C-alpha cells in the first residue's frame, strides 16, 4: 500500500494572553511534534483522553487550524505550503466528519441543499447532475430521496450522522478525517454508523483518519492505532499488536481499564494517579513522567525519542 498522507513534526501552539491585546504569556502546546503516515485505503485510529490534541491534529492536517510548524504531505503535495486558493482546490479530496452532526448541519438548510453545497463550492457538475448525485448518495448512506426537502431537526442523531457522512462523501474525497463521529450516538447506533463507514471505505477506496477517545470504537474500525498523550504520539502500531502487546506505560494503563472480549488478553489493572497535566505547562522530559508507574530519573529531564521496537510498532519511551 502506498502512503497517501505524511505528517512530519506537526506542531500547533495556541498563544495564552491575559486579554485580547496583551502580550503572549506562554503557549498551549496542543500538538507537539507529531509524525506519522497513513497508507492509502487504511484506517488509522488516533486515540487518547480529551485534551490530548487528537482533534487539533486532525484539524491542523486539513489546515482548518493553521499549524505552527511541521509538514503535511498529501499525495506528494505539501499541504502546509499551499496558498489558500490552491488549498481550496485540494479540499474536495480531503473531507471531515464531525462529532456532533447537529451542530455541523445548518438548521435552516434542507438536506438537499446541504449536500449540494460542497459541489457548488467546488464547481462540480451542473444543477441537474447535482440533484442526481444527492439522490444517489442519500441511498448509499441509507436514507432516501424523500428526505431531500427535510431539515436537520427532523432526523435522529444516527440519521444526521449519515447526512454528515454523505456531505463529506459527495465530492468523492480520498481521505476523510472523522473526529469522534460516533461519540454523540447511542451504542446501538454507533455500530451501524461504523459498519456503514467500513462499507463506504470498501466501495469508494477511502482512507480514514479516525479520531476517538473510545478504545473499543477505535479497535472496531482501525487497521493501525496511534495513542496520543499531551500533544504527543506515544505509541503507534498495527491494531492487533497494540491491543495484545502495548509497550508504552500510558497505553498499558488505558487498555487495562477496558474490559476485553478475549480472556487471554487479560492483564493487570494499572491505576494512574494524578490528573492529566495542563498542556500549557507540560512536564519536562517525558510528558507522562508525573503519572508513569515506571518513571526513572532520565524520564524527568529527557524527552524520549520514538523508536521502532518491532516492524511497524513505534514507541516513545525510555524503557
Ligand atoms: Fe514512563 Fe519514562 Fe517511559 Fe515516560 S519515558 S513512559 S516516564 S518509563
Ligand atoms: Mg476532540
From TrEMBL:
Residues 16-255 form the ABC transporter domain. This is ABC transporter ATP-binding protein. Keywords: ATP-binding, Nucleotide-binding, Transport. Belongs to the ABC transporter superfamily. Pfam families: ABC_tran (PF00005), oligo_HPY (PF08352). It comes from Tumebacillus lipolyticus. GO terms for molecular function: ATP binding.
